[in-house]
Specification:
By secondary structure, this protein is an alpha+beta fold. A five-stranded antiparallel beta sheet has the order 1-3-4-5-2, with helices on one face. The chain is elongated and about 55 Å long. The two termini are about 30 Å apart.
Length: about 150
């Protein structure tokens, strides 16, 4: 990656993680944003009769923690996804604490492009999402100043 003062660049093997508790409100907010009104997210009777046995959150709620890890920690501010390849392997329910993990597996030698191993784990140790992501990190300004971002 190009060298810039005041900015650290990731190295192969670097990793980061972030945790949060998933709530019923997350389902509501994601529905407002996406229009996903699948009964598995709202209808307790339908959810109970499914293979999941209870209400589950939308996959976008689960994967969103990876957006936060990538944008806030590694590679960090100014980073966007170019490509993701995710498998959703277990459900997440309201009340679960999930932890999103990323690990750098490759860095383009001349561009700010990073390949990551990505996974999300429930608080009981179950992996719920696994896959890869390719990210591009752009400079945000002279010193990557984020002072104008909302709190």
């Amino acid at each position: 990656m190009p060298s810039r003062p005041n900015r650290s660049y990731p190295r192969v093997g670097d990793s980061a993680q972030l945790s949060r508790k998933v709530t019923d409100r997350d389902i509501t907010l994601f529905t407002e944003l996406s229009g996903d009104r699948n009964p598995l997210h709202y209808d307790e009777r339908a959810a109970r009769s499914s293979r999941f046995g209870e209400i589950i959150v939308q996959g976008g709620v689960t994967s969103a923690i990876l957006n936060a890890v990538v944008a806030e920690q590694l590679p960090g501010p100014g980073t966007v996804f170019l490509n993701v390849n995710w498998n959703f392997v277990a459900p997440v329910r309201p009340g679960d604490v999930i932890t999103g993990h990323v690990k750098v597996t490759d860095i383009h030698p001349s561009k700010p492009i990073t390949t990551l191993r990505t996974w999300v784990v429930r608080d009981d140790g179950t992996v719920v999402l696994e896959g890869t992501a390719v990210c591009y990190t752009t400079d945000l300004g002279p010193e990557d100043d984020q002072s104008n971002l909302p709190c």
